[in-house]
Amino acid sequence: MNFEQLQPEYHAALAEGKMQKLPAALAAAHRLLESRERFLSLQKACGVPALWVMPVFERENPSFESYLGNGDPLSHRTTHVPRGRGPFATWEEGAADALALDHITEPEDWTWEWACYKWELWNGFGPRNHGRPSGYLWSGTDQYHGGKYVADGVWSPRTWDTQLGTVILAKAIALLDGEIAKGLA
Q1: Which of 74, 141, 163, 184 could form a disulfide with 88 if both were Cys (CB 3.0 to 4.6 A apart)?
Q2: Minimal CA–CA distance to 44: which of 111, 92, 98?
């Protein structure tokens, strides 16, 4: 799947989508913004907007002691996929490595649609293979209709992603912080 194919779909979902769990998203956004300088530092170092990284951090493993790409401790080489990364002196160093490894740092104009594409690329297009929008992006909005991988390669059409999706998290952060909101045109 390439961006040109998916951009109109993202555009429509962003325009039509309703945030169903905004109070929870705002609470998470407040918590994430307590560390805004770390996210802005990473943005400056690798070019990926803080507004893109913050929801990923929240969904993946919200700890500055672990590797963004898999949650392994920064102080050792990673043992989960991607294996053999690190060790890293700082979270920012490890996060920049994970983002570069997955080609998230490729230069592009960061729009909301591009962010959606990169979030889906980061997490995988698997839900599309089952005819469902990804909970990774859309959970907490009316664009999500259930379905989730419950283990590697095990799809459950009846399971709901209970974490907030990256879109609602990013929208909540953007509502609270105009500077960070500028990261996505």
Answers
A1: 74
A2: 92
Q: Tell me if 57 sits within 8 A of 44, measured CB to CB.
A: no
Torsion of CA 32, 48, 160, 162, to 10 degrees: -10
State which residues form the domain around 61.
Answer: 3-181
The pLDDT assigned to 120 comes to 96
CA–CA separation, 120 and 114 (whole Å): 10
Judged on CB neighbours under 10 Å (0-12, 13-18, 19+), 153 is exposed
Average pLDDT over residues 18-33: 98
Count up the domains in the chain and report the number.
Answer: 1
What is the distance between the alpha carbons of residues 116 and 125, in angstroms, rounded to a whole number? 12
- Closest by CA to 172, choosing from 56, 38, 21, is 21
